[in-house]
Design a protein that fits this description.
The protein has 19 helices and two strands. The chain is an all-alpha fold.
Length: about 375
């Protein structure tokens, strides 16, 4: 910590506190300069490896396995804060340790999906799949399953079905595992997307039997949710029963976000059945719970917006330099459309000027 404190005193590091502890960052120019010097050191490979291994430990530090969504808010905040480091670690690991890259990408799959980063996820998985012959053990199967699940969450049917076809041995395995249940649920989703209801129901039921054999209640709830989706159009009564049981299990297991997702499916079922009032009440209840969760953890992953004091408020002398810094901070907090307008029209802020037309010229005359 003495070294870190010394770097902070010299303005080479900048502290940026968060809800999960102190963090430090540095300017891009300093980081590029340090990166060039690191590349010339004989121990550069060891430094990059330790960094990638740290990232792998970080993303895998979740109370559930990698085949279901992690609802630990602390884990989500930590991963979101380290997203730049995750990308850097993946870049290095793909070139130097493919198994380590596969481990990071597989654990990141649900995070990418929950944040709407499906295109980024597909990019990483396509790179790994292009070199799957270099993956050892079950890493290739894990990458295919994670890529397929990522495609399912992003409604990328082509990727999901391509991966499912390569996972057929896993689907047909007689040994029940969470990985097999995830593959069966992926198959159920693909069949439901194609409106092959009976096939989707059968695969969801198989996944439910695997979850029962494993004694995994949370996995049973996932299977019931997929069963409800599969029976949505052909058997609404069965779909409702499956959704209600899945929501009860998820709530009992403490998976609040997943329980809200199942209740949204119930509301959609009410909409399809013409019960608009019941659907509206369900949507409003879920939205209220989501808002309460965001208020508890912050809309952007847990850190509430903090006031950035001007230099004079910090006891500094102020002056022109301080005023410029404060102005930059104010402009950085403006909505994006106002920042763009200020740049386009050469002004510091406010709405853009109205373009002058021929009518304006006539009025001036």
């Amino acid at each position: 910590m003495d070294v870190v404190a010394s770097l902070v005193d010299k303005s080479l590091l900048r502290p940026s506190g968060g809800s999960d502890g102190a963090r430090f960052s540095m300017l891009a120019t300093l980081r590029d300069f340090a990166g060039k010097h690191l590349a010339n050191r004989p121990d550069a490979g060891d430094v990059h490896r330790r960094h990638a291994e740290y990232v792998a430990r970080l993303v895998s530090d979740c109370p559930v396995d990698q085949w279901r969504a992690c609802e630990d808010d602390g884990w989500r905040r930590r991963v979101a804060a380290e997203l730049v480091n995750v990308r850097a670690a993946l870049d290095w690991a793909i070139a130097n340790d493919l198994d380590l890259a596969a481990k990071i990408a597989v654990w990141m799959q649900h995070f990418w999906s929950s944040k709407g980063l499906g295109l980024e996820a597909r990019g990483w998985f396509e790179v790994l799949l292009a070199r799957d012959d270099a993956l050892s053990g079950d890493a290739g199967t894990d990458v295919r399953l994670a890529a397929g699940l990522s495609g399912g969450y992003a409604n990328d049917l082509e990727l999901a079905e391509r991966m499912l076809a390569e996972l057929e041995p896993l689907v047909q395995s007689e040994q029940p595992t969470p990985k097999q249940a995830a593959a069966l649920l992926l198959g159920s989703w693909c069949a439901a997307f194609r409106r092959h209801g009976p096939q989707a129901v059968e695969l969801a039921e198989q996944a439910g039997r695997v979850a029962t054999a494993l004694g995994d209640r949370s996995l049973q709830a996932y299977a019931l949710n997929h069963l409800g989706i599969a029976a949505f159009h052909d058997d609404p009564g069965r779909a409702r029963a499956a959704f209600m049981e899945a929501a009860q299990i998820q709530a009992a297991e403490g998976n609040r976000a997943s329980a809200r997702g199942v209740r949204i499916n119930l509301a959609l079922l009410d909409v399809a059945a013409g019960r608009s009032q019941e659907a509206y009440e369900m949507f409003e209840a879920v939205r209220a719970e989501s808002r309460a969760a965001n208020d508890r953890h912050g809309a952007r992953g847990g850190d509430q917006p903090r006031h950035v004091p001007r230099p004079r408020e910090q006891g500094g002398r102020g002056g022109r330099g301080a005023a410029l810094v404060a102005d930059r901070l104010d402009r950085a907090r403006q909505p994006a459309r106002h920042r763009g307008a200020a740049v386009r029209h050469g002004r510091r802020g406010g709405a853009p000027r109205r373009p002058r037309g021929r009518g304006d010229a006539r009025r001036r005359r």
